[in-house]
Amino acid sequence: MTHLLAQAAPIRNPAIDYHAIAPELVLAGTIFVVLFLDLFLPRDRKWLAMPVAFVGTVGSLAASLTLIGSLPRRTFGGSYVIDNFAILFKVFFLAVALVVLMLSYRYLRDGRYYQGEYYTLLLCSFLGMLTMPSSRDLLMLFISLELVSAPGFLLAGFRKGDPRSNEAALKFFLISVLSTAVMLYGMSLVYGVTGTLRLDGIAAKLSQPAGATNLALAAILFVVAGFAFKVSAFPFQFWAPDTYEGSPVPVAAFLSVASKAAGFAGLLQIMFVAFLPRADFWAPIFAVLSLFTMTIGNLVALQQRQVVRLLAYSSIAQAGYMLLPFALATTNDAVVNKEAFAAAVLYILIYAVMNLGAFAVVVGMTREAPGILVSDFAGLGQRAGLIAVAMAMFMLSLAGIPPLAGFWGKFFIFRAAIDRGGVGVWLAIAMVVNSVISLVYYVSVVRPMFLEPVAEPVLPFRPPASVTAVVAFAAAAVAVVFIFPNLLLHFPGVSTLIGQ
Amino acid sequence: MSGWEKSAITLAVFLPAFGALVIAFMPRGMDRLVRGLGILFSGAALLVGIIMLFGFDYGAHDGLQFELKASWISAINANYHVGIDGISLPLFELTLLLTFLCAIYTWKFLPEPGRPKGFIALMLLLETGMAGTFIAFDLVLFFIFWELVLVPMYFLIGIWGSANREYAAIKFFLYTLFGSVFMLLGFLALFFNSSPHTFDILQLSQQGSAGLALTRSVQNLIFAGLFLGFAIKVPMWPFHTWLPDAHTEAPTVGSVLLAGILLKMGTYGFIRIALPILPDAARTWAPAIAILAVIAIVYASLACLAQRDLKRLIAFSSVGHMGFVMLGIATLTPVGINAAIFGMVAHGLITGMLFFEVGSIYDRYHTRQISDIGGGMLQKIPLLAGIFAFTAIASLGLPGLAGFWGEVTALLSSYSPAQILSGHLTLFRTLMVFGGIGTILTAGYFLWTLQRVNLGTLPELWQERALPDVTTVEMLAWAPLLVGILFLGLFPRVVFGTTNDAVTALARVFTGG
Question: pTM of this prediction?
Answer without folding.
Answer: 0.91
